[in-house]
Design brief:
It is a single chain. By secondary structure, the protein is of the alpha+beta class. It has two domains: 79 residues, Alpha-Beta Plaits (2-Layer Sandwich), CATH 3.30.70; 74 residues, no CATH class. 31% of the residues lie in helices and 13% in strands. Strands 2-3-1-4 form a four-stranded antiparallel beta sheet.
Length: 186
């Protein structure tokens, strides 16, 4: 009987080890996770609560490995909007998106500068001549989140004043100055 009990104990220990190893192998690996941006319902300024606690609470409901719920939170946004950046699997992101308090969940994207030399970008040769009289009334609009007026690419040497029809303004904040090339900012 003692031999049967010992054999049964060994079998139980091996079964538990097998289940534990299987569980660890089946957990999503970090390379299976992508960064997602999560927008939530708007903040209520009259309520006092911790957005980070709410964000972690949501993650604990959807992240498969509870130990990594707090580790998956990259950043909580608390000032301009209620949301957070997190690393999730696709399945976890879909589960999170189905929550009532979640407005949207989408993969984070990284954008790279396409050019710093407009001449090359629009296909003009390096020997092309600039004709201010012909080209002076053209406004090219660019939406950019990081404009540095002190950059050489925004130098206005040789540019005349903005066209008279221009109705924009230069409100780029302190230490931000527009010129005859960079004619507007907000």
């Amino acid at each position: 009987m003692a031999a049967k009990d010992a054999l049964f104990q060994h079998f139980c220990i091996l079964s538990v080890l097998f289940l534990l190893i299987n569980h660890l192998i089946c957990l999503p690996k970090d390379e299976d996770r992508k960064v997602y941006i999560v927008y939530l319902d708007s903040l209520n300024p009259t309520e006092t609560y911790s957005p980070t606690s709410q964000h972690l609470g949501l993650l604990q409901q959807v992240v498969e490995d509870q130990r990594s719920a707090s580790a998956s939170l990259i950043r909580s946004y608390k000032s301009s909007f209620n949301g957070f950046a997190t690393k999730l699997t696709e399945k976890e992101a879909q589960k999170l998106a189905s929550k009532d308090e979640v407005f949207s969940v989408f993969p984070s994207q990284t954008f790279y500068v396409q050019t710093r030399k407009s001449w090359d970008f629009i296909g003009l040769s390096k020997t092309a001549k600039w004709m201010p009289s012909t080209e002076g009334n053209i406004i090219i609009a660019v939406l950019d989140s990081r404009t540095y007026p002190e950059s050489e690419s925004f130098g206005d040497k040789g540019f005349g004043p903005p066209p008279r029809k221009w109705k924009g303004s230069c409100k780029g904040g302190s230490n931000f100055t527009c010129n005859n090339k960079l004619i507007g900012a907000r």
